[in-house]
User: Fold this.
Amino acid sequence: MSNNRGDTEPEQQPLSPSAACLTTTLNSRTEHRVEQATILDAFTQACPETAGTTQGRPVLSALLDELADHQLIELPRTRDGWDNAQPPLPRWLRLPAPAKATEPREARTAPLMWRRELSWASAIKLTTAQTETLKTINRWLRDTDGDTHRRAVIPMRERSLEIFGDEKRLDALTTTTLFAPGRLTLTTMFTERIPPPLAYERVGSGGTVLVIENSDTFATVSTLLAQDPGRVGYVAFGGGHAFEASVTRIANLRGVTDIAYYGDLDDDGLTIPQRANASGTASGLPPIRPALGLYRLLLQQNIQGPAPKRVDPLAAERRVSWLPEPLRHPAANILTAGNRLAQEATGTALLQQDHSWRDDL
Assistant:
């Protein structure tokens, strides 16, 4: 991992809205092993704006990897558990065993008077922890009834702190069955997710946003493109994993018709743009494509270093599927060998001398 990915080592990112919706939809199923047809159906319900489009398969692949990283699903570990398209999708997955209720249903629900917004709670089986969570929300809904000031829509972490005394509690709750279809929504609590800021430089009048993962390369590329931007209108600083959420800020930039990404050639560097693409397409943004010329030039540099871990061949196949076909094999070899290529290998001197990286921008 690059030592300036986002300038500091990030904590694990909260689930993206699309991944949170997908996991709650999957968890509303009764089976422990979920077959591909059911996975696709759940994806259609969770992401109707993306399912069925050319971005459907790559977006679903990225969302499933995100859920697996959060240990919310278990993906197949052998090749026969995956189909043969690109990127490969699992033929099945496993869901965690459901939590068991610790007290009889009658004892839990009989004394509770749910608000109209939570009336669904009386018809389902709840654990003790879930009941306590809903009671807290129930009290907040009661205490704010008719108060337009307290029920104004505010950022999710502010509302989470107000209701639970913990600004990150709602981040965790959105991944649970309490947020399954027909149950809790952020709208119920008059709140919304706020994407982090996106730093960028305006370098020209074109419709392309070029996103650079790390800060030093962002500075180099911004300076060089300011002199001759071609079709690039903006150079944005991805900031590592932060870009998975800040990508939606691109919608605020004028005239954007194309998004290109350039990052490290390692597990994280290839995961970030694919997860950002899932969030971006859900927000109506153009698909995020690799900056081909920059990646091609990076692969020509023999400055490989050790990665934190060796990537399993199956995982490597999914990571590199985002790259153009001619670059997939050499990129996969780097990952499975336990190595990485930092984007800083295409430094200022090289980018000044070799202009081939501008060809697809």
Notes: Residues 6-10, 101-110 have pLDDT under 50 and may be disordered. The radius of gyration is 22 Å. DSSP finds 14 helices and eleven strands in the chain. Residues 219 and 237 are 9 Å apart (CA to CA).
